[in-house]
Amino acid sequence: MGIKDQFQDKANDLAGKAKGAMGSEKDEASERASQGRDDMQERGQQAQEEARNRSAKSPDEAKEAAQEQQDKFNQNYDA
User: Fold this and answer.
1) Cα separation of 64 and 54, whole Å?
2) Confidence of residue 63 (pLDDT cuts 50, 70, 90)
3) Closest Cα partner for 79 from 25, 39, 31?
4) Helix segments in the chain, DSSP class H
5) 65 and 51 Cβ atoms separated by less than 8 Å
6) 3, 13, 14, 35 — which has fewest CB within 10 A?
7) For position 26, what pLDDT does the model report?
8) pTM of the full predicted structure?
9) pLDDT at residue 19 above 60?
10) Does residue 32 surpass a pLDDT of 70?
11) Neighbours of 55 (CB within 10 A)
C-alpha cells in the first residue's frame, strides 16, 4: 500500500466520521424541536383550561384571562 492509498483511506475515514457526527447533531436538533412543540402544545392546553375555569366566574374575568393567556402565548412564541 502506497502513501497515497494511506492518505486516501484516512481521508475516507475522516469523511465518514464527519457524516456520522452531522447525523447525530441533526437528530438532537430534531428531538429538541419536537420537545419544544410538545411543550408549546401543553402550555396552550393549560391556557385554554385556565381560561375556561375563569370564564365560569364572570365575563370580565374571562376576557382578562383570555388576554393574559394570549400575551403569554405571544411572549413564548416570540422567544
Assistant:
1) 9
2) confident
3) 39
4) 3-55, 59-78
5) yes
6) 3
7) 74
8) 0.39
9) yes
10) yes
11) 14
Neighbours of 68 (CB within 10 A): 14
Amino acid code (one letter) for 32: R
Residues 6+ apart with CB under 8 A from 43: 72, 73, 76
For residues 79 and 68, give the distance between their C-alpha atoms in angstroms, rounded to a whole number: 17
Question: In the structure grid, which three cell numbers stand for residue 22, read together?
Answer: 452531522
Q: Residue with C-alpha cell 413564548? A: 76
Instruction: Provide CB contacts within 8 A for 59, sequence distance 6+.
Output: none
Which of 42, 41, 68, 40 is CA-nearest to residue 54?
Answer: 68
Angle of helix 59-78 relative to helix 3-55, nearest 10 degrees, comes to: 170
Q: How many CB atoms lie within 10 A of CB 73?
A: 14
Q: How many residues would you count in the chain?
A: 79
